[in-house]
Amino acid sequence: MSGHPSRDGWYAAGEVDCFPVPPPRERPSRLVLLGAPGAGKGTQARLLCESLRACHLSTGELFRAARDQCASSPAMRAAIEAMNRGELVPEELVIAMVRERANCLRCHGGFVLDGFPRNQTQAIALDEILAELHIAIEAVVYLELPQEELELPLEEIVARLSGRRTCVDCRAVFDLAANPPTRSGVCDYCGERLVQRTDDQPEAIRVRMKVFEAETLSLVEFYERLGKLVRISASGTPEQIRDRVLQGLDRNVSEVAT
Ligand code: ADP
Ligand code: ZN
Predict the structure, then answer these.
(1) What DSSP character marks residue 41?
(2) Which of 5, 103, 118, 178 has the most beta carbons within 10 angstroms of its beta carbon?
(3) How many domains is the chain partitioned into structurally?
(4) Range of the domain at 38
(5) Would residue 249 count as lying in a domain?
C-alpha cells in the first residue's frame, strides 16, 4: 500500500498527522461497511480504499493495536477482554474513541468506516458526530452473504474463520484455504509476519455471529429507510466484489484511480 496515508491520525487519535497527508479530493468517499463476520469486510475495506484513495478506519483494529501495545487503562483492559470473547466493547468507550478521531472523518481524503456503527445507539452517535462536522455519509455498503452461505452450518463458518491470518504490519487479510499468502506465514504486501486474531477462535466466532444478528443486522433496515443502503452480494473473488461495490456506488475505476 505504498503512497497510501499511514493512518497515524486514526491510531494516535489526532495527536500526529498522517503521512502523506491525503490530497483533497473533489468527491471524497465517505462510506460505512456492514457485514457479518466472514463476509470479507476487512478485505473489501482495503481494496476499496486503494481504489478510492480513502482511509480504512477500523474500530476493531484500534482495539487490537491497544492490546498489542499492552494498554494499561482499566477501561481499555476490560474492552480488550470483551473483544477476545467476541463481545462488543462498552458503547461509551467506542463512541468516545470515534469522536476523538473526528479529524479522520473530516479528512479530505475520505474514509471507509469498518466496524462502526455496530448497533442503533452507535448509528445515532455517528449521525450526531457527522452533523457537528457538517459532513454526510455517501452510502452504507452492506456485504451480504449469498443464501447458500447463510445456510451453512455454523461449524463450517467457524472452520473458515479459523483459517484467517492477518499481517501484523499492514493488516492485510489472508485465508489459508481461499486466498493463501505466497509464502506461508509471510505477508504478500509488506513481507511482515501473519498472525491469527485472538477472536478468530471457535467460541469467540460463535459469539461474534450472535452479536451480529442481535445488534448489527438491524442497521441494514435502519440505513435502508434513510435511503443510504447499497446491498452488495459478497460472493465471488475479492476483486469482483470490489467492482460490484464501485458500480453500486456509481463510481468507476477510471474516475477513482486518477
Ligand atoms: P469482525 O471481523 O468480527 O467484524 P472487527 O475487527 O470489526 O471484527 O472487531 C473486532 C472486535 O472489536 C469486535 O468483536 C468487538 O469486540 C470490538 N469492536 C470493534 N468495533 C466495535 C464497536 N463499534 N462497538 C463495540 N465493539 C467493537
Ligand atoms: Zn503486510
Answers:
(1) H
(2) 5
(3) 1
(4) 27-145+235-241
(5) no
In a domain, 108, yes or no: yes
CA distance 138 to 55: 15
For residue 28 and ligand 1, the question of a CB distance below 6 A is answered with no
Active site residues per annotation: 41, 118, 164, 197, 208
User: 41 CB less than 6 Å from ligand 1?
Assistant: yes
CA of 58 to the centre of ligand 1 (A): 8
- We report the CATH number of the domain holding residue 77 as 3.40.50.300
Query: Is the distance from CB of 36 to CB of 234 less than 8 angstroms?
Result: no
Residue 222 lies in a domain: no
Distance CA 239, CA 225 (A): 29
| Residue whose C-alpha cell reads 469467540 in the numeric block | 204
**DSSP one-letter code for 145:** P
Q: What is the pLDDT of residue 258?
A: 40
How far does the chain reach from its first CA to its final CA, in angstroms?
16
**Alpha carbon of 193 to ligand 2 centroid (Å):** 7
pLDDT less than 70: residues of the chain: 1-5, 14-16, 71, 251-258
Task: Assess contact for 153 and 182: CB atoms under 8 A.
Answer: no
Give the predicted TM-score (pTM) of the model.
0.89
**Which of 59, 165, 167, 207 gets mutated to test ligand 1 (max ligand atoms within 8 A of its CB)?**
59
Other beta carbons within 10 angstroms of residue 216's beta carbon come to 22
Binding site membership of 43 for ligand 1 (Cβ less than 6 Å): no
Domain presence at residue 162: no
For 79, phi then psi, to 5°, come to -65, -40
CB atoms within 10 A of CB 203: 11
| Residue 118 CB–ligand 1 contact under 6 Å | yes
